[in-house]
Amino acid sequence: MPAPSLPIDPDLIANHNAARTGALADDYDALGRRLTRRGIDIDAITAKVARFSVAIPSWGVGTGGTRFSRFPGPGEPTGIDQKLEDCAVIQQLGRATPSVSLHIPWDAAPPAELRALAAALGLTFDAINSNTFQDHPGDPDHPLSYKYGSLSHVDPAVRAQAVAHNIACIRLGEALGSKALTVWIGDGANFPGQSHMGRAFERYLSSMQEIYAALPADWRLFSEHKMYEPAFYATVVQDWGTSLLTAQALGPKASCLVDLGHHAPNVNIEMIVSRLAHAGKLGGFHFNDSKYGDDDLDAGTIDPFRLFLVFNELVDLEGRVEAPAYMIDQSHNVTDPIESLIRSADEIRRAYAQALLVDRAALASYQGDNDALMASETLKAGFRTDVDPILARARLDAGGAIDPVGAYRASGYRQMVAARRPAAQGGGGGIV
Length: 432
Description:
Layout: H1 10-18, H2 21-37, H3 42-51, E1 56-57, H4 80-94, E2 99-101, E3 103-104, H5 111-120, E4 124-125, E5 128-130, H6 156-176, E6 180-183, E7 188-189, H7 197-213, E8 220-224, E9 234-235, H8 240-250, E10 254-259, H9 269-278, E11 282-287, H10 304-317, E12 325-328, H11 337-356, H12 360-368, H13 372-384, H14 388-397, H15 404-411, H16 413-420
Parallel strand pairs: 1-2, 2-4, 3-5, 5-6, 6-8, 8-10, 10-11, 11-12
Antiparallel strand pairs: 7-9
Helix pairs in contact: 1-15, 2-14, 3-11, 3-14, 4-11, 4-15, 5-6, 6-7, 9-10, 10-11, 11-13, 12-13
């Protein structure tokens, strides 16, 4: 992996910003005056927003797919070096995504090379994600099939293979400077009677205890749940309650990861956030959006108010719980993944900024008086505020682009990598 330069010419970003700086200054000053009337210091909010970051998933820069087919886009990355290059574009323009979450064995490579390449691109590594939800043909570390499960499999040899893989992920993460392991399994049953639900969960817990025992002292383990898919009748870790049971059984370094698409329709996710925080087991988030299920749509595209309500809980918890880990987890089927990830990071920051604007003293007073309407209006005052100038100013001050998608298109990056990367082939289904 040769040492790269930053993928986007800084002069292009500077020239792109020059035509927009004056308008941004006007908009920022106008918003500042409005917020001053509400007793809010816009610069303090901007500083907080600038410190907020979310990790990019390495797999997110490739074109996703459905269970039926995948339609690859031009210039798709074919290896971890090209994935990191694309991630660097997102960080260079948006300045909200300095870390990358790897997926193993998809992204397996010598750790010294990975670390050097990331450093050259201005990136670090976030949580490591293990993969025992699919088979890995030809991989000598995965000779056994996960068709009927992994950490909860009836065969102890398959369970041992899955445990060993997770421990190998921890060791790789140590070499990369990561501090967390995320475990999601697809284990479950498609037919009633196919699996003994109680014994399957007990086997899963036993496997997770082995993995937990291998954690370094300063690491965290995130248990991720999902209501269904690929197992549609019964899933071993199907909801936040089971994830909580797992984290409580394992110990203080274990907590729960909330993926916004992994719930039943109409579930109150912000209440789950509150309950997990109350239990001291709120570990982190995978951000996306959904209409029907685990759609993995861009964050904020379907229900931005729900995203805001999640952040309303998180802002309320600031300083009282350990800061959660944040990552985007999306499947980009019809858009340029780089553009979608730039916009998604911006939408996540938007929800955070809006939640910071909520008058918490007024909200508590209305709640204490059972004034439902004014409590709701207090929340809506934050949500209705156009915080675009705050987001753009945070990017500009950090060396990013005022209009990151516009600057990306002006750079011609997609056309450039399409010319030098082999064209990917379409075909069967699959998320990535």
